[in-house]
Design brief:
The structure is a homodimer of 147-residue chains. With 147 residues, chain A is an alpha+beta fold. The first copy, chain A, contains 4 helices and 5 strands.
Chain lengths: 147, 147
């Protein structure tokens, strides 16, 4: 029984579980996509702007994305997203730091052009064990309407 | 001779070269970060919302990020970014599609709190061979000021 557009409503909160990244996972990702010294070289990173190795921001965002796929999109008639606004990193992601994912529905809109499609806008968060906000973003995703 | 904050000015354009993603690269990335069927299963993707396999949006964004590291940040006294606004995907990234990267400086600001740091806000684009805009985002990066 997948989620259709009709199953989302303003104010709904999805808790997406938690996950952390190891130093090796950070380095492997950053070698491909963000090879700055503070993402790939633990020793040099100690004297860098974050005082240690931190995850690429692209990886932190994608980690939330993976939680969103596992927790929502994989059980939904999703047609993908087309953008993100207000992606902010409030603190860097460090090796082993546990991140808790969440998305809150802030708006749902039927498409004026396609009667079979609706939009959901969500406010996403990653928080630390201490409850501080590590990352926030707003995402728009298209879902099929219930046939 | 790295770039410091003083070396960036409004209107400056950096052409970041071009790159494409193979189907295998798309599937490998999406298995880790965005395992939706239209990112990991070429056959099923044919009947999906994009009529074929397309790259995860996180990967398209990170591909631009890699071009930015290679073309600018690796030669700069960068202290990392803290956010992105207005990330928009105008068309999906398909296997083998060549993407051309660019960033235009839209604003530079000295930090009011830290005399050794300045901010650069850039408008980033990926365009196709045909010149259409595939992705656009606005990014804020911190750079050291010239000592």
């Amino acid at each position: 029984m997948p989620y259709y557009w009709e199953d989302f409503e303003q104010g709904q909160v999805f808790e997406l579980g938690s996950r952390s990244l190891s130093e090796d996972e950070m380095i492997a990702f950053a070698r491909d996509w963000d090879p700055q010294f503070f993402h790939i070289d633990p020793k040099a990173a100690q004297d860098g702007p974050f005082g240690g190795l931190v995850a690429s921001g692209w990886q932190t965002a994608a980690l939330w994305g993976r939680m969103f796929v596992d927790g929502v999109l994989s059980q939904a008639e999703s047609m993908g997203g087309d953008g993100i606004t207000d992606l902010r990193f409030f603190e860097p992601t460090r090796p082993g730091m546990r991140l808790h994912g969440r998305i809150t529905v802030v708006e749902t809109k039927a498409s004026s052009k396609r009667p079979d499609v609706g939009t959901v806008i969500g406010d996403a968060q990653l928080t630390s064990d201490a409850g501080t906000t590590v990352m926030r973003l707003r995402i728009r995703v298209y879902f099929r309407r219930r046939p």
